[in-house]
Amino acid sequence: MARAGLTVERLVGAAAELADEAGFEGVSVSALARRFGVKDASLYSHVRNLQELRVRLALYAGGELIERIAGAVAGRAGKDALAAFAGAYRSYALEHPGRYAATQIRIDQALIADAPALRRTAEITYGMLRAYGLEEPDLTDAVRLLRSTFHGYCALESAGGFGAARDVQASWDRAIDALHVTLEHWPRRT
């Protein structure tokens, strides 16, 4: 164990690399043990089981994603912030498909409360949307709209699901334009 220099951080970093190479479902304790040249049992002193490893990977990838988004939206508002947010989201999903897939798993709410990256995700996302004058429950609805749109587009794009001759980037730009208009004209409850 000590010879391999194993730490939770090294395991999660290696799991992130493995996820991008083999897909999120390809992340296993056995695959990581092989990568480090140790027996599976050596890893269990650092993580309890595969589920814990995958949750740690999800939190790690979520942290990377929000750092990219935060850098992109810094100093921007309105449509500029939305486009920067969306662009950072999309580029991360396409560059790191396995890590991105990890960000989509369901995580126990108790763990989310203790995860700084996930709190930061909410702060940045809700902050961007507040510039559109949204408040709860509309904020939650708008977050769900954006997430489902971004995720759906990225999933289809990465799977080669856009076969039309139209440039995929041009369609993405139009989708962001449409989301901006939707957010500007969000239906208000009266």
Low-confidence stretches: none
Radius of gyration: 19 Å
Envelope shape: globular
Strand portion, in percent? Answer: under 5%
Q: Give the helix/strand class.
A: mainly alpha
Q: Give the rounded overall mean pLDDT.
A: 92
Return the string of H and E elements: HHHHHHHHHH
* CA-CA gap between termini: 63 Å
The tally of beta strands, per DSSP, is: 0
**In DSSP terms, counting alpha (H) and pi (I) runs of 4 or more, how many helices?**
10
Major beta-sheet overview:
none
Residue share in helix: over 70%
Q: Main traits of this protein?
A:
single chain; 190 residues; mainly alpha
Task: Describe the overall structure.
This protein has 190 residues and is mostly helical. Helix content is 70%, strand content 0%. It has 10 helices and no strands. It has helices at residues 8-22, 29-36, 40-43, 50-73, 78-95, 97-102, 109-113, 116-130, 138-158, 168-184. Helix 5 packs across helix 10 (168-184).
In short:
The chain has 190 residues and is an all-alpha fold.
List the helices and strands and how they pair.
Elements: H1 8-22, H2 29-36, H3 40-43, H4 50-73, H5 78-95, H6 97-102, H7 109-113, H8 116-130, H9 138-158, H10 168-184
